Amino acid sequence: MNKDLTTGKPETVLWQFCLPLFGSIVFQQLYNIADSLVAGKFIGENALAAVGNSYEITLIFIAFAFGCNMGCSVIVSQLFGAKEYGRLKTAVTTACIFSALLCAALMLAGILGSVPLLHLIRTPREVFADSRLYLYIYVWGLPFVFFYNIATGIFSALGDSKTPFYFLAVSSTSNIAVDILFVKAFHMGVAGVAWATFLCQGISCILAVLTVWARLGKIPVKSKPPLFDTGLLKRILVIAIPSILQQSFISAGNIMIQGVINGFGASVMAGYSAAVKLNSLVITSFTTIGNGISNFSAQNMGAHKYSRIRECFGAGLKMVWLLCIPFCILYIFLGKYLLLLFMERESAAALLAGRQFLWIISPFYFAVSAKLVADGILRGLSAMGFFMAATFTDLILRVVLAFLLSGWTGSAMGIWSAWPIGWCIATAMSVLLYRRKCREFPS
User: Fold this and answer.
1) How far is CA 312 from CA 295, 297, 373, 437, in A?
2) What is the mean pLDDT of residues 264-276?
3) Among 62, 81, 116, 143, which residue is least crowded by beta carbons within 10 Å?
4) pLDDT at 203 over 70
């Protein structure tokens, strides 16, 4: 059901809207966690390392899908808040046409560039073949990734965060079952993990696109809107390009960091692969809540209700900090047992690497979550210059420090330490830029 986010108590509306988004991203992360869990438990340490190694490259493709999601979602939110329904429908079809062309180009680049990228990050010989196979299958499923992201962005823009939750709950739990079926019953190895994700994402995408099209058809318009509008594409790209650059540079930075990690051997790679999936669950949860905050801010910007945007920051901060507490407790005190979920047998070196990563970064979730709340508001207001400044600061610091500190300490501990330093500095920037933007609002 479509929901107007410009009415009602802001804190209550935001909680009701964002909690299903949080549930959705938990199930979304089950896709990636299931791949690593099944690979590590039922195939072996090298398979776990291969899936984790490929994951950093797949994030580049996800970055483009995420950018298209945000560009479409923010503009559709603004038009929905302003009740410009004809232009809203044109914005959706414009985003779909652009995304289809971009997806085709990325598939070609993925097919031709996967092997050079794996060499670039110094993928060890024992995991190279599986990494390459996983990537090839993933690339063929890119249309599902793109159009599912577009569909969920539209649902969120219309104030509906529950429908994506239902889709993801079914498809992600199915993915776990199909993962195990393909690997255990059909003995397909890493290919089974990849094909399971391909199949479940495909079904989820088709159902989501059909549902969103039916939903849009119920929105009344005076005349048939055009399929494509250059002006709306420019507005979408103003949001999409910085979002793509943000996620792409983060992914590129993570690939560079993965190259440093690979120099410490397969055991450290496996430990990091397991730990980074747990970390991604947290960061992606905060990012998704930030996306919901973007939709809330964009709808209220379209309706010129600026006081509600100011209230959004405090409500969002309360929400993410409440989530930080259980994650910190789990990762600090029970990290060993969570990591063992991904491993067929206890590997002392892999466990130590994973536990050290979680111990170092988890207390700083309070800092990075505040950044992502501020970023969400900036993006919803189309203040992408401010948004990019804080993001690039975090990325550059983390990459540079990972190289420097790993060389200085001679261990992976130096790499892990780069995360909190980058997060803290970037958080200070994001919050200050958000406050500056708020001072521009009419009284």
Assistant:
1) 11, 8, 9, 14
2) 83
3) 116
4) yes
Residue 128, Cβ neighbours under 10 Å: how many? 15
**pLDDT tier for residue 45 given thresholds of 50, 70 and 90:** low
Q: Which of 113-127, 200-214, 241-255 has the lowest mean pLDDT?
A: 241-255
**Integer Rg of the chain from CA:** 21
Q: Examine the pLDDT at 387 and tell me if it is beyond 80.
A: no
Give the amino acid at 108: L
DSSP for 179-196, written as a single string: HHIIIIIS--HHHHHHHH
Please say whether the dihedral angle defined by the alpha carbons of residues 213, 170, 274 and 263, taken in this order, is positive or negative.
negative
Dist CA 251 CA 64 (whole Å): 11
Asked if residue 201 lies in contact with residue 222, where contact means CB atoms within 8 angstroms, the answer is no
Closest CA to 212 of 62, 102, 88, 29: 88
User: How far, CA to CA in Å, does 306 sit from each of 312, 314, 400?
Assistant: 10, 14, 39
Q: Output the CA–CA distances (angstroms, integers) from residue 350 to 48, 128, 320, in the order listed.
A: 11, 19, 30
Over range 256-272, report the average pLDDT.
82
- Where does 95-250 show beta strands of DSSP type E? none
Q: How confident is the model at residue 31 (pLDDT cuts 50, 70, 90)?
A: low
From CA 139, how far away is CA 57, in angstroms rounded? 11
The 3-state DSSP class for residue 115 equals: helix
Distance CA 306, CA 82 (A): 14
Q: Residue 352: its pLDDT value, please?
A: 87
Say which DSSP state 218 is in.
T
